[in-house]
Amino acid sequence: MPAIHYILKDGAVRTVDVRDGLSVMEAAVHANVRGIDAECGGSCACATCHVYVAEADLDRLPPPDELEAEMLDAVAAERRPTSRLSCQIIIGPALDGLTVEVPATQS
Ligand code: FES
């Protein structure tokens, strides 16, 4: 199973082994990773699943689609070039070892 590394607000790292097909947000919620609120449940409508993808991993992801890019304008924390909505990142073998940072605020 692919492993996803979550850097928490306090700098601690949680590593979660995730079944293919789940999103980075779903994996976080199932594993009780703190700081990913996901108020809309993954329908790309709340922006409370915002994460910063590690720069070294950005090329492993397809770019955000139009709706995700629009929702990224509504994130509570600073938007950065590495900002993504974790509900829109679907995990598969190619993402093994992906590292994402949880922002200090989500809502
Ligand atoms: S969970 Fe709401 S936008 Fe991702």
From TrEMBL:
GO terms for biological process: P450-containing electron transport chain. Keywords: 2Fe-2S, Iron, Iron-sulfur, Metal-binding. Gene3D superfamilies: 3.10.20.30. InterPro entries: 2Fe-2S_ferredoxin-like_sf, 2Fe-2S_ferredoxin-type, Adrenodoxin-like, Adrenodoxin_Fe-S_BS, Beta-grasp_dom_sf. One of its GO terms (cellular component) is cytosol. The keyword Iron-sulfur applies. Its cofactor is [2Fe-2S] cluster. GO terms for molecular function: 2 iron, 2 sulfur cluster binding; electron transfer activity; metal ion binding. Belongs to the adrenodoxin/putidaredoxin family. This is Ferredoxin. It comes from Piscinibacter gummiphilus. The lineage of its organism: Bacteria, Pseudomonadati, Pseudomonadota, Betaproteobacteria, Burkholderiales.
